[in-house]
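chain below, 373 aa
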Amino acid sequence: MKNIGIGVVGGGYMGKAHSVAMQAVGAVFETRLRPVCELICTTSQAGAEKKAAAFGFNRATADWRALVNDPAVEAIIIASPQETHRDIALAAFKLGKPVFCEKPLGAGLADSRIMVEAAEQSGLPNMVGFNYIRTPASQLARSIVASGEIGAVTYFRGEHTEDFFCDPQMPGTWRTRGRSNGTMGDLAPHMINGALALAGPIASLSADIETVHQTRPGENGSGPQAVTNDDHAQFMCRFENGAMGTLYFSRVATGRKMGYAYEIFGTKGSIRFDQEDQNALWLYNSDAASDRQGFSKILTGPEHPDYLPFCQGPGHGTGYQDQIIIEAHDFLKAIETGSSVWPTFRDGMEVNRIIEAAWASNETRNWVSISEF
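prediction:
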């Protein structure tokens, strides 16, 4: 075993998740590289020191440049707002340090292209954080589709729906300001990545994007403030393999808590999955006898990808934090082998391309070709 110093930029929801993952991954997966939580960065020194104590880091800083340049930090995890991703990643690659970057890769397609170029020129391991597609059930779904078990894919329906802004009286926050913080920048990347992983590249699309609640109460009891980004969006698409598709994303889907869900129809069978029941995959086999046809519920267990390190019993299940630990394992494996693992920065850029195309379609009210972006 060999230690590797980890630096995490960001101490919020995802910063904590990645910090916990780095503390746990060595024991869970018995990795050859053992992370040492060396340095964490947040927006203030006092806040960073508090997070360092809470998450088990050796040191703290309020300057991401100090973190990236620190010789004890050998790999970087970016879990800060997307507007900061590009500069941090470029600095890390320049110093020869592998980078794991939370989604979306950049604040927009232009940022992502610059980041991909830097990553590929450096030859260093790079990875983007799309955690939901890494559940054992969704890894199984990818394997089933790739093997041809359900035949050629003819249709994909995907959604990422939540209800954390369904109440119009909920005060506005940073999430309701700026295009990159809306649903197309927050929730949509996960399901777009899922669609690309499960059904392949998208050739064209027609999108409709909307702000449902145009104003919200201001923070701290102040007067109404304008909502400057989107609440929900949908698009029809055609995949390069000829399959049809529809995708829907919402932060105002009343009653939905973690609606990362998809349905895949093939010429020989079909699959459906719902993240609110993340340890089950439903599979239909059209070759079954007519009196045995119907969806079968498959409970994930030790025979499925990345399940056994967490639990030896089928049906006991994995959870949200486990998805992040799986990502940590893959990132360490990439560093150990010197080869990036899916999804790379280029895969993250493909998601940004789809989002850019969707905005263009929404503005022109036309179908657009992804090759134009």
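The chain has a mean pLDDT of 97. The chain is about 35% helix and 25% strand.
thats it, cya
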